[in-house]
Amino acid sequence: MAPRHEIAHLAHVQLLTPKLEESVRFCTDFLGLRVVGSEGDRVYLHAWDDYQHHTLTLRAHRHAGIARTHLRAASPEALRGRVDAIETTGYGIGWADGEPGFGPTYLFTDPDGHEFGLYYEAEWFQCTEETRPALKNQAAAYPSGGVPARRLDHVNFLGRTPGDNRDFLVDVLGALTTEQIMLDDGSVAAAWTTFTNKSYDLVYTRDNLGLSGRLHHIAFAADSRADILRACDVALDQGVFIETGPHKHAIQQTFFLYVYEPGGNRIELCNPGARLILAPDWHRVDWTEAERAKGQAWGLKTIESFHTHGTPTADDLTRET
Amino acid sequence: MAPRHEIAHLAHVQLLTPKLEESVRFCTDFLGLRVVGSEGDRVYLHAWDDYQHHTLTLRAHRHAGIARTHLRAASPEALRGRVDAIETTGYGIGWADGEPGFGPTYLFTDPDGHEFGLYYEAEWFQCTEETRPALKNQAAAYPSGGVPARRLDHVNFLGRTPGDNRDFLVDVLGALTTEQIMLDDGSVAAAWTTFTNKSYDLVYTRDNLGLSGRLHHIAFAADSRADILRACDVALDQGVFIETGPHKHAIQQTFFLYVYEPGGNRIELCNPGARLILAPDWHRVDWTEAERAKGQAWGLKTIESFHTHGTPTADDLTRET
Amino acid sequence: MAPRHEIAHLAHVQLLTPKLEESVRFCTDFLGLRVVGSEGDRVYLHAWDDYQHHTLTLRAHRHAGIARTHLRAASPEALRGRVDAIETTGYGIGWADGEPGFGPTYLFTDPDGHEFGLYYEAEWFQCTEETRPALKNQAAAYPSGGVPARRLDHVNFLGRTPGDNRDFLVDVLGALTTEQIMLDDGSVAAAWTTFTNKSYDLVYTRDNLGLSGRLHHIAFAADSRADILRACDVALDQGVFIETGPHKHAIQQTFFLYVYEPGGNRIELCNPGARLILAPDWHRVDWTEAERAKGQAWGLKTIESFHTHGTPTADDLTRET
Amino acid sequence: MAPRHEIAHLAHVQLLTPKLEESVRFCTDFLGLRVVGSEGDRVYLHAWDDYQHHTLTLRAHRHAGIARTHLRAASPEALRGRVDAIETTGYGIGWADGEPGFGPTYLFTDPDGHEFGLYYEAEWFQCTEETRPALKNQAAAYPSGGVPARRLDHVNFLGRTPGDNRDFLVDVLGALTTEQIMLDDGSVAAAWTTFTNKSYDLVYTRDNLGLSGRLHHIAFAADSRADILRACDVALDQGVFIETGPHKHAIQQTFFLYVYEPGGNRIELCNPGARLILAPDWHRVDWTEAERAKGQAWGLKTIESFHTHGTPTADDLTRET
């Protein structure tokens, strides 16, 4: 088991979209992200309180999906230590230049084939005159429109064997498993893991289609449940498709809203209230099949598409090492 | 005393501003109003759930202030009845064409000299393709940005003798006084009156500078206290000047935020929760000097500018009869 | 068509419950009502900002249901006028003593058989030392626990022919129909009517079981959507059954939560934001079958029990004239 | 500089009160804490989502104040390491039995004389039938009444030299300084430090009275800004004294409310939205005197008592080693 705190946090996602222009508009008008650059088929977007250069990369592609998830190491030493550990697993790919503003990035996959990048060096977000906040302890001005999403919150992958992928995160990267679904046959149907005091950063859910490398959703943090309700009103009149919610999850107790961005990727807005995992000896919560059958916290039944809809990894892209 | 329910509601205000362009930008970017037309030195703005053609007219002028407040009569008969009543008081001015989308409008002043327009005929708001809401029981699409203000809520005038003006509203227009401040000398320092189930529509506060015809503020309805808190964040990074709040008034218990629009007029955002005046025999609440000295509901002391800052009426404009 | 504004507001409901003690506990612990008296098999409960003596009567009975709905007339003259009008319809029953604190009450039914009481004289709520609010423009102290419900908001009846009952309210009592569901065959499946600036006070929905006199739900006003979310958390840990919600209605745009009180009656918590009906020439909104098939505002599908569960009127009680 | 992550989190405070019974009632009725035990002059209180045995100890004393602050080490090894480090500073006191449910506790003071206890072994909160939550990933049932406070959030000490105390936390315990006030003369007027991803856990503010060992306030986490507004309404009618707020701090951007508990200690309710410190290379924010003169985030001026009111440490108690 790797030591905790070597991964500082989930930092960035690169999403694929077949409708780049519309997906960008969704990110700016609905999520309240700001375009901070573009290059070729990629557009870089920043959430208003992300200290880093950008939060999300949208990349034009023939299908929706997730290309890569970036984690930031806690220090140069932690980066070296984790790369060594990854290399012993056979899942390492090699070093790449990294996203704009991100330093040298070590690429690897989880056992299910989702690609990750791990880096330490990071350029901090530089405001323009227009995006300079009134308070200097904030990354950028609070957007008037959209949700607005404060920062990336978590990524929920689909995978063949959530238990194996959870083990990879725990053993190699030092994640903590906070909650999981344990089926009656003893297998793990889903696992929530964290690198921080947030109750989860990376989640694996069993892929009901038996596929590898798919994305269930990425989530952005909203500042309050009230903001998520307001986002529903905005979604309604912007024509954003709401899949399910708003409601509160039983697992992790997150207040949620699930929408699809125009490219087809599922996006969650989430807020956990003041919930944090502070206990160093956290007692992992295992949910049984019977408990899961009760639906969400306040009784909402999980809808069918939630069990099937996912977007694939970019397995046909030439890997950029 | 005039019968109640002849005035349907406060409908529209025409504000003066020496900085038309900036005031318009404040209305669109901060309040979340939409420009629905302009003509000469006037810009017409619509709040997203106002059923009428427009909610606010901004008019370029050499000083900030209020030109006119419009009330909508409950019926053609009510209009005729109220005009007759006004004419007996000597405060009548005469008929005018009215704002765009408003039918024939009878102009008059209150005893303090604030100009009013009373009308019945009204064009309903027509959506464009872009402003059409998803739900047809809503006037226009919910704006993604700004507060957004749902509708005009109330007007608070400054005046030499609030009691006389209150009497005018009650006796001639059928208003109900719901709360007032009664000084130890028996004079009325402020009076809150309503034509509806809202706890106030028009307010008179004694002008501490002894002037006539000034405006203390106009107020827009926000859907929740949470929206007003969010508006504070937006104001901070848009450079909107917050005079006082957010806090809750002791009188009327309205949750409030006071800002100045760039022209200098004070604008309130307000939310009363689910408070309504339903009792047909409402027991008017009289606040004493001692009670007022306690500050606002949760203890905030009223700041000095709140007692002095006001913007004048357009007394030098040629009246447009 | 009766003149508007003769009925001041929906004032009170008498509910039947087979589990009086548990229903009372639900009202105090979950809704945040206060017991203000009891007599025989009846318990009187007060919502914290109701100006009247009490808001709800719970009455022990062998089944759940609604015994009577009280409306307050706008004046003694309005009371006489409406009683005269009712008597011409054949639906009048006669005068009764009324609830404690309510003056002489004229009993009648709607065409579907739901019993109503109409009165004018009303005792205002008298605080005890313990329930005295800090601010004197409030009926009673704000409860620390439960929702808390500010006041009764509306009653939604089930009935054989919503259109006939709507006509009765409009023609005899002066209600305004603000929205309705118009089926493809031209019949009215549901109608929302109001006596106030609230967008609805009394609602009729077609009874899918073909029964008469049943109740769909009564609703209490919560001050914000945030309070309703909080109520969900309270419900979860108090074991209150949540039927559906929280979500936002397409019709009337009310944010809602539906629960069952222990006796079996459906109770709604509702909040419309700052929405009011101010137009004296309101354009009634007719929803088609196709539009209704879209579910609630943000996409929630209406659950089955919502179409069938109702609680009957007390048709076997000896009427107390 | 000590390694980070050896202190898991701020865990518990022991407060002194001259009015034990009233202070307990404040904690249960207003804060929504639960009494989970008592012994002699001490009452143990639990916040609903605290995983530990109790969150706060109230101790009868002749004056208000703070007796001790507990920190939980991240592991047995971390506990040993920190105790060794503390002992080299001369601020160590020795081992004690600890609070009920807390294992062996090492006592020490900061340079200013505030007493701390550091421990690792911890009993998890055991629910009774009555406090068992519906969801098993929650420590105890959500209270219907009061704020309710989810957990202890931070402690703000007054001290002669905030810089020295900050250094102690950083050098000996591995805290990170996230923000501070740097006066024009180069001295540190206040410093915010954290052991977690929360933006602060322990704060030192210069004591304007030049005293040592005093407490400015302890803070409890509320789940939303809406909950804090609601708490204002509850405070008003429970007679809880509100010192200042609700408003948003410029420093750390926390939404806040300050009240005094009946014993005289200042208590804060706080909510930071979704703000977290995730950057491993966080750029400390230093506020200048000029920046501080601007007041709070939305313009509220800091009131006088905020600069002076504090409650002392129990320096006359026999230390219990």
TrEMBL record, chains A, B, C, D:
Upper lineage: Bacteria, Bacillati, Actinomycetota, Actinomycetes, Mycobacteriales
PROSITE patterns: VOC
Name of the featured protein: Catechol 2,3-dioxygenase
Superkingdom of this protein's organism: Bacteria
Pfam families xref list: Glyoxalase
Gene3D superfamilies with a match to the protein in the record: 2,3-Dihydroxybiphenyl 1,2-Dioxygenase, domain 1
Residues in VOC domain copies: 9-121, 151-272
Entry GO MF terms: dioxygenase activity
Keywords from the UniProt entry: Dioxygenase, Oxidoreductase
